[in-house]
Design a protein that fits this description.
The complex is a heterodimer of chains A (578) and B (332). With 578 residues, chain A is of the alpha+beta class. Chain A has 21 helices and 15 strands. Chain B has one domain: 3-Layer(aba) Sandwich (Rossmann fold), CATH 3.40.50. The radius of gyration of chain B is 28 Å and the shape is elongated. Chain B has 332 residues and is α/β, with parallel strands linked by helices. The chains are: A alpha+beta (578), B alpha/beta (332). The interface between A and B is medium-sized, with 39 and 31 residues.
């Protein structure tokens, strides 16, 4: 078997594995659902996740250490990951192939020549790593915006799969929604379509993971090369060169992604993978200019304090940004979150959404709860997001910790925020209509939402009784039949109040054995009132789960909404004493 | 080049490279091992080391705990008041670093009485430096309004600097977390620690003011200005927080300026019609006693200000100021 065939099979298998892991990231008990599948496999292999979080937090979180394997293999063999493993790389490989398959050989060679701009990816790497490692200010892990594993995972999980699943209904019964997914789609499509300009555009010019690998393979024990310097102008080896690493002469090892197409294409059998350096000459170091390096260093060092000027970690935090249960304090969270979208994918209620830049540029695509989208707020008995999070930006909490029971009874439940009633929009408070859906759905026991009863006179609710016989009151004015017969309306007769059981156009039938007649004032005035239970939130009990907000019948801007005040994770957002 | 060299050179290169590759692998592995942490981060990911507030109080003297001076000029009255308590030498030793905490809460001109009288602050600064032989006097507060504006408009900044004090304006790094032992509210809470980090003495100088939430703002409430963070949540339990402040900050001396009293619209005031002359200045080593007497100038009883009894029960002082045999005097 040719080595390129082996490579294609390997690419195919890893891509299939990637797809499979995306699909199985679904809560449920059928065999193919999440179970014990290593759904974060590619993140664990990704050294940028390990390095980025390590620089930001000064610790290497458990499973991320697996990336050491990738690093070691790269040091020995070269950038195998890019063209053998990386699912995003395979997509580019495929589209690059489509783009150039009908082109002439000379054109293909031209497309695959080395370009100076390939060094941009190194500057991107430096820029983002400095942001993650910034010593004095709170660092932020933004490299994941461009990390290929993060991109491909979030593109599939919160964009392609939800679109495809509208037809297949495999990952969820009802369609999944993701606000702002269009931006992820745009980004993904742009990266893919750029292959039609230059094959593997993203890999060659942008990919910071590739750039990182390129700095590792300078000592690679085995490397691509020419056995002799013959045929310096043939360039057949460059026809399908994926890395644009000019194998013909002055082979750039840092750009070589080990696609082995040159071995396949060489008619002179000159190309080989061996321990000695290429007879056609070799350039070991990545093409990084000093000026570019210093500029990207300075850029990263300036970008972070510039982002921090918004003070969104301090007094100016965005109260509409509700993080999933178990999320670290915001500053620590931003050091770990890689915007991969795994939590958004796994969340059974679909309440976790990719955030926009509202509340800080660095929030883009980080998880935020949107109770209007989710099917029922943050479900009380669920900790799926923390269990899947590859970097523990959302801690893998237990149900006990979330609910504040057993060992965690002293700490109390994890609060995501506090619900506030908007009395200007609430049906009982503002519109005189009975409701309390929020109170009914509050999952906390005893409920965090409680009600106080009041009786309010309805509009034009004063009537004059013409006659009272038994429990039936005749009035002079015409009413709408049965309007007050819902069980929520009462008739006040003097100091007494009777529930209205039925009403015709000019009679009211009242409940009870007591005779209303005896209470009737001399002027014959009776008043029709509605019994309202007005909701209140006990901020001590409220956990900010957002079910109330989700269920509130005021469908646009909800009449009860969760705000980040009082969330457990940030001490400076405390709302109550004690 | 002989044929032998041609073979040897790549081999040497290869060996050198292999060694370097090996070293890189070892380095990467060592770094990973060093940084490795199998556990997810804990809930309180960044617990800063807690600080302890020093006790600045001096030993009590039975008959020199509180002095009450009648007079129209607070600066003059303060000299008399301190002399009657044993002189500044009792409170400041040569070479001491003294922190003075006036009330600079608002960017409000001195004539409106919302902040400590600047001449009084300057007088105490000079007293500490000249007679007390203090090494350094720091005047500081963590105001409610913008600090620069507060120190400027209240006149305290200029007066204190002219008298030889060093001004300290708050910045985030100056705050450290502390907990009050046995406290309910001050628990892992940031306080303005920088000022007292190296200090030997703490002197509070407060104006006597009406305060709508707590009833009266005097020397104990003045230390609210040493709290950091979103301290306003403590207004949910104002009496307890004032009592806890009295437990947390044990001053060397407190001075309560009732020469002009803010009777209404406190604690901001805003009009001279909110003010009334009472021509009284109180100094003492027991803030609870000083404030208990001060309450009478606002026509309040001890029971009108629950924080007084709470502080007394907690051991911060005594509400029964007469028991401490106050020294009454007057300055013309």
């Amino acid at each position: 078997m040719k080595i390129v065939t082996a490579r294609r099979i390997c690419q195919f298998l890893f891509f299939a594995l990637f797809l499979w892991l995306c699909v199985v990231s679904t809560v449920g008990d059928s065999f193919w659902r999440i179970g014990n599948y290593p759904v974060n496999f590619f993140f664990y292999l990704d050294p940028l996740v390990a390095l980025g979080t390590m620089l930001a937090t000064h610790s290497l979180y458990g499973p991320l250490a697996l990336a050491l394997i990738t690093i070691i293999l790269t040091i020995i063999f070269g950038r195998f990951f890019c063209s053998w493993v990386c699912p995003f790389g395979s997509i580019h490989h495929f589209f690059g192939y489509l783009a150039k398959r009908n082109k002439k050989t000379a054109e293909k060679i031209r497309l695959n020549r080395y370009r100076k701009a390939q060094s941009i990816k190194y500057f991107i790497l430096v820029f983002f790593l400095i942001m993650a490692a910034f010593p004095s200010l709170a660092a932020t892990l933004q490299i994941s915006l461009l990390d290929p594993i993060s991109i491909v995972t979030r593109s599939f999980n919160i964009m392609l799969i939800p679109i495809a699943d509208r037809f297949f209904h495999i990952t969820s019964a009802a369609p999944r929604f993701y606000e702002g997914a269009w931006l992820i789609l745009t980004f993904f499509l742009a990266a893919v379509l750029l292959n039609f300009a230059i094959p593997r555009f993203y890999c060659r010019f942008i990919c910071p993971l590739g750039a990182f690998f390129a700095t590792l393979n300078r000592f690679a024990v085995w490397r691509i090369g020419k056995k002799s310097a013959e045929h310096p102008d043939c360039r057949l080896c460059e026809v399908n060169c994926e890395g644009a690493c000019q194998p013909t002469h002055d082979f750039r090892i840092s750009e070589c992604i080990l696609c082995f197409n040159c071995l396949n294409d060489c008619k002179h059998e000159l190309m080989t993978y061996r321990r000695a350096i290429s007879a056609g000459g070799e350039i070991t170091d990545p093409d990084i200019s000093r000026r570019g390096f210093i500029l990207s260093l300075a850029g990263g060092a300036l970008a972070l304090p510039a982002v921090r000027l918004a003070n969104t970690l301090g007094a100016n935090y965005y109260p509409g940004l509700i993080r999933p249960p178990g999320a670290l304090p915001e500053e620590e969270f931003l050091k770990r979150c890689i915007k991969c979208g795994q939590c958004m994918r796994i969340c059974p209620t679909n309440v976790i959404q990719p955030a926009s830049i509202q509340g800080g540029l660095e929030n883009l695509w980080t998880p935020a709860l949107n109770n209007r989208i989710g099917s029922s707020g943050c479900q009380l008995n669920c900790v799926a997001c923390g269990q899947i999070c590859p970097t523990a930006a959302i801690r893998p909490i237990s149900l006990d910790e979330k609910l504040g029971i057993n060992d965690f009874a002293d700490a109390g439940p994890i609060k995501l925020g506090t619900a506030f009633v908007d009395r200007n929009r609430c049906l009982p408070w503002a519109l005189g209509r009975p409701c309390i859906v929020c109170e009914e759905n509050c999952p906390v026991s005893p409920k965090a939402i409680f009600t106080k009863v009041s009786f309010e006179t309805v509009r034009d609710g004063e009537f004059t009784a013409a006659k009272i016989s038994g429990n039936t009151v005749e009035i002079k004015t015409i009413m709408q039949s049965d309007r007050y017969a819902t069980g929520d309306y009462y008739c006040a007769v003097g100091p007494a109040r009777f529930k209205i059981v039925a009403n015709s156009e000019n009679t009211l039938r009242l409940e009870g054995k007591e005779k209303p007649e005896q209470h009737l004032p001399s002027n014959g005035k009776i008043i029709i009132q509605v019994r309202l239970q007005k909701p209140y939130v006990d901020p001590q009990k409220c956990i900010g789960c957002g079910v109330c907000e989700h269920e509130c019948p005021v469908s646009g801007k909800r009449a009860i909404r969760v705000s980040a005040e009082g969330e457990s994770r940030n001490a400076n957002r405390k709302l109550l004493l004690g | 080049m002989t044929k032998k060299d041609k073979i040897k050179l790549p081999r040497r290169q290869f060996l050198a490279r292999t060694v370097k590759a090996g070293l890189s692998i070892v380095a990467a592995s060592a770094l990973a091992k060093l940084m490795y942490n199998s556990k997810p981060p804990s809930v309180a990911a960044d617990i800063s080391e807690m600080v302890k507030v020093p006790d600045f109080s001096v030993a009590a003297r039975a008959s020199q705990q509180i002095s009450i001076i009648k007079g129209p000029d607070p600066a003059q009255s303060s000299l008399k008041a301190i002399d009657l308590l044993g002189g500044i030498e009792r409170f400041v030793k040569p070479g001491d670093i003294v922190v003075i905490k006036p009330n600079v809460a608002f960017a409000s001109p001195p004539a409106l009485g919302a902040t400590t009288n600047p001449a009084l602050v300057a007088q105490i600064v000079r007293l500490c430096l000249d007679r007390g032989k203090a090494k350094k006097v720091i005047v500081t507060d963590n105001p409610i309004n913008n600090p620069e504006s507060c120190f400027l408009i209240s006149g305290i900044g200029k007066a204190a600097s002219a008298a030889g004090a060093e001004l300290l304006l708050p910045r985030p790094a100056y705050f450290r977390n502390t907990s009050l032992q046995g406290g309910k509210l001050i628990n892992d809470w940031p306080i303005y620690f920088e000022a007292m980090r190296k200090a030997d003495r703490l002197i509070g100088i407060a104006p006597l003011k009406d305060h709508h939430r707590s009833g009266a703002s005097m020397t104990m409430k003045n230390f609210y200005g040493l709290l950091g963070g979103r301290r306003n949540i403590f207004h949910q339990n104002i009496n307890t927080i004032i009592a806890e402040l009295a437990m947390l900050f044990r001053p060397t001396l407190v001075i309560l300026d009732g020469t002009t009293v803010m009777k209404t619209n406190g604690p901001t005031g805003g009009s001279t019609s909110d003010l009334k002359r009472a021509d009284t200045l109180i100094a003492g080593t027991d803030p609870v006693a000083v404030d208990s007497f001060g309450a009478t100038l606002l026509d309040l009883k001890t029971s009108d200000l629950p924080y007084l009894s709470l502080a007394a029960e907690a051991g911060a002082g005594s509400t029964d100021y007469m028991l401490l045999k106050p020294i009454f005097a007057s300055v013309s």
